[in-house]
Write a structure and sequence with these properties.
The structure is a single chain. With 190 residues, the protein is mainly beta. It has one domain (4-187): Neuraminidase. Helix content is 4%, strand content 48%. The chain has one helix and 16 strands. The strands form four sheets. It has a five-stranded antiparallel beta sheet, with no helix packed on it. A four-stranded antiparallel beta sheet has the order 1-2-4-5, with no helix packed on it. A four-stranded antiparallel beta sheet has the order 10-11-12-13, with no helix packed on it.
Length: 190
């Protein structure tokens, strides 16, 4: 199976993502990941040798809610990307996100390749965070809106960790010069 990326439960079993090329076994995020499936979590089958995320795709994180799965990352240098799946095996790339001001997508791409680093879901909805701290929310995992007013960390390097709780968001990451950890707390409305 090689290097293991995100693993998550589906209605039919479990899905794991691995790097398609064994030479990329230690890359993070996963480059052009392939999908493995297991009914019981112990015996795994490669679904296809081709990545359902497309050429040049990298996947950073996956979250699940109500039978829907959302993967985030980037495609080449074209910026952040979001994919959605209802079975974890076939993935659809969603339209490019609208980047919140003041950071426009082209600025973010130059600074951080527009990489979306983390996705989380709970009963209130979905949230994704880019490495520059920009954030988006969704009620269904398909339609995303910029989270305006989110205390993002513009110009920083937010290798994000994201958690949603009842109405509360906690995100953490790092800022350069000198490097230091930060924690951002906010609220989310479905």
């Amino acid at each position: 199976m090689g290097s293991l990326g995100p693993v998550f439960a589906t209605d039919a079993g479990f899905v794991a993502l691995t790097a398609a090329n064994p030479a990329n076994w230690n890359n993070s995020p996963l480059c052009e990941p392939v999908v493995w499936f297991s009914e019981d979590g112990s015996t795994w089958t490669l679904v296809s040798r081709d990545s359902p995320f497309g050429k040049g795709a990298v996947v950073q994180d996956v979250a699940s809610r109500g039978g829907r799965h959302v993967a985030v990352g980037a495609v080449g240098t074209t910026g952040g990307a979001v994919w959605v799946s209802d079975d974890g095996l076939a993935w659809e790339r969603l339209p490019t996100l609208e980047w919140p001001e003041p950071c426009q997508e082209t600025d973010c791409v130059a600074a951080n390749f527009g990489l979306i680093g983390d996705v989380a879901a709970d009963e209130s909805g979905w949230m994704i965070v880019a490495w520059d701290g920009a954030a988006w929310t969704s009620a269904d995992g398909r339609t995303w809106q910029p989270l305006r007013g989110w205390p993002e960390i513009r110009g920083g390097y937010m290798s994000p960790s994201l958690s949603l709780g009842p109405g509360t968001i906690v995100a953490s990451g790092s800022l350069p010069g000198p490097w230091h950890q930060v924690v951002v707390v906010g609220t989310i409305q479905p």
